[in-house]
Amino acid sequence: MFGSAFGGPGPLLLLLLALGIDALFGDWLDRILPDPAGLARRFCNAADVRLNRAERGRSAQVFRGALVVLALVLIAAAAGLLVEWIGSIGRGWMVELLALLCGLRGRAAWTRIRAVRRALESGGVVAGQEAIQSLTRRHVYGLDEHGIARAAVEAAARAFDRKLVAPVFGYALLGVPGLFVWTAMDGADAALGSPGVRHGRFGSTAATLDDALNALPARLAGLLLALAAPFIGTAKAGSALRSLGRDARKHPSLNMGWPIAAMAGALGLALGGPHRDGGVVITENWIGDGRARVTPADIGRALALSAVASLLLVGLVALLLWGVAGI
């Protein structure tokens, strides 16, 4: 696993290299490398416009949505196999490294969440609402300063799972096809997975497959966030673990409750909770038993916690590499 049969680095060593590059230059690379999740989201949005008709029956909507997801998965898997075939030829491992850098978006997501803190601190609520808009499914113009900060802390927990842990897990398990299938489903879930009248049927396959693929990574992300807590000032690992056991299943999502509960418990916060969507109050459970008046400083603590958890993830990959090399 240190090197391939053709003299290039092996998959786990490539993964470590990609994690290091993403940590240092990921926000810059985000501007020049294609985002597979973004491409999948555009694919699904186009399919949604053409195929999702409200007048069709339930079975037809579910079937058409399933076909879109099947086509997306096949395209992603085929692209991954092609990259691996190129990677087996001469210096083709560089193409595989680029594929990894396309799929790992941890630093880019971290930078966007940091921008929310800076917007709140420099521009107040209006600037914060604009900055958080792409990071949450909530109606942002109904959020006050504390609601924006809560959404940003939740986004940090989600991003650690979906933009870092899950793609690492997919690649370590199934190589580039696993990485591309995960990123494709990340985009499909963003486009079609939200509950509601329009996507409740057409997007049901996307949401279900996303839940299945993210089941183990989300739990690993929650555990890593809890283990990172002792390295962050007043954060507490014990509280994070208690919150995981008590509140992880309270979240509307099957998986997102795990990293969010760990984040809430570690930082002594209460996340989730009721929020307004236009003139309607959406009732959601509170996750964590700390304070709900989250501040911009708490966004910084959440980012620090996710950064340390990312280092633990790198250590886990290095340990796996050492274990495989020692066999």
The percentage of residues in β strands lies in under 5%
**What's the pLDDT, averaged over the residues?**
92
Largest sheet: 2 strands, antiparallel
Class from helix and strand fractions: mainly alpha
Number of domains: 1
Number of helices, where a helix is a run of at least 4 consecutive DSSP H or I residues: 11
Low-confidence stretches: none
The percent of residues in helical segments reads: over 70%
The whole-angstrom Rg is 20 Å
Morphology: globular
Q: Write the H/E string, N to C.
A: HHHHHHHHHHEEEEH
Distance from N terminus to C terminus (CA atoms, Å) equals 10 Å
Strand order of the largest sheet: 1-4
| Number of strand segments | 4
Keywords: Cell membrane, Cobalamin biosynthesis, Membrane, Transmembrane, Transmembrane helix
Organism: Azospirillum melinis
Function: Converts cobyric acid to cobinamide by the addition of aminopropanol on the F carboxylic group.
Transmembrane segments: 12-29, 62-86, 92-110, 164-185, 220-241, 253-271, 303-325
Topology:
Layout: H1 11-29, H2 36-51, H3 58-87, H4 93-103, H5 106-132, H6 145-192, H7 199-202, H8 204-228, H9 237-247, H10 257-267, E1 271-272, E2 275-277, E3 280-282, E4 286-287, H11 296-326
Antiparallel strand pairs: 1-4, 2-3
